[in-house]
Amino acid sequence: MNLPDSPTAQDWSFFLETLTASFGCVTGTLHRYDPADKHLKLVAQLGIPPQLMPVIQSIPMGKGIAGAAAERRQPVELCNLQTDTSGVAREGARQTQVQGSLAVPVLAGNRLCGTLGIGKREAYDFTEEEKQRLIDLAASVADRLLPV
């Protein structure tokens, strides 16, 4: 997935649409890390219900699936968001109607640039190969996600 050096909002949306389709997913989010307030700021989304948009615009480190992936700097997966009791998902996340979900940190070396998340309508355990592929895709765009 080729992106220009300075991607526009439309470029990021196309990237996310292509990526989610390649995983057979119906939702996706891409957030940029803002070190000033330690929040993840929404760059692009696909399939997120309008009522959740205010909630996902700015996510604190450690909160929700994306915030946990950013804080841990590791993939965070939920086989079924609808029945999960781990406490990782934020209240309201069930409104996405997503079950299988995966979020990975977007890293440039050791530097956190953001998070990339995908979701399926059905309960799903992502394979190690799928997790690694999403990590690799996230790393491939990390330098373009750095704050300008």
Distance linking N and C termini: 21 Å
Total tally of structural domains: 1
Annotated CATH architecture: 2-Layer Sandwich
Sheet having the most strands: 6 strands, antiparallel
What would you report as the Rg, rounded to the nearest angstrom? 14 Å
- Low-pLDDT ranges: none
Strand order of the largest sheet: 3-2-1-6-5-4
Question: Which term fits the overall shape?
Answer: globular
Estimate the helix proportion, in percent: 25-40%
Mean pLDDT: 86
Structural class of the secondary elements?
alpha+beta
Strand content: 25-35%
CATH class identity: Alpha Beta
- Look at the structure and name the CATH superfamily: GAF domain
Describe it.
The chain has 148 residues and is an alpha+beta fold. It has one domain: GAF domain (Beta-Lactamase), CATH 3.30.450.40. Helix content is 30%, strand content 26%. The chain is built from 4 helices and 6 strands, in the order αββαβαβββα. It has helices at residues 9-22, 53-56, 64-72, 128-145; strands at 27-34, 39-46, 58-60, 76-78, 101-108, 111-119. A hairpin with a 2-residue loop joins strand 5 and strand 6. The model has no long low-confidence stretch (mean pLDDT 86). This is GAF domain-containing protein.
